[in-house]
Known about the structure:
This protein is α/β, with parallel strands linked by helices. Helix content is about 50%, strand content about 15%. The protein has helices spanning about 20-25, 30-40, 50-60, 65-80, 100-110, 120-125, 135-140, and strands spanning about 10-15, 45-50, 80-85, 110-115, 125, 130. α1 (about 20-25) crosses α2 and α2 (about 30-40) packs across α4. The radius of gyration is 14 Å and the shape is globular. About 35% of the residues are buried.
Amino acid sequence: MGQMDGTEDHRWIVVLDINLVVAAYWNQTSASARIIRACIDGRLVPAFTDKMISGMWRILRNISASQRYLDEVVEPLLELGKDTEPMTAPVVSEDPEDQAFLECAAGADADYLITSDRHLLKLSNSGRTAILTPTEFLRRVGLGA
């Protein structure tokens, strides 16, 4: 997979672990925030399952995310996302809670699963989906780090 620039027709399909959305809330200049901004700007296509979305809302409520963040970041991210039916993933995470992200990646035929979760990162890939940290992802696709 090469670098992404304005001349390519391909937009990477990405599965964002909920930890990215939380990290972007706490640090709006982080690699996670830059990835979310790239999704909202249309440079990446985020994929979500219903289970992931409900989990995201639950966690954002638990951390008392601001209404502004919900309105300006989370809602646009979800509106632009690819609604995905989960499929059986070719690998299994040590943490059953992480399986939803692998199933979303399989269902979306995602290029990348972006996470800071050590159980997922340990797998390194799931079928054709590369599993990377936010910083690794930015470097891999040429969005900088």
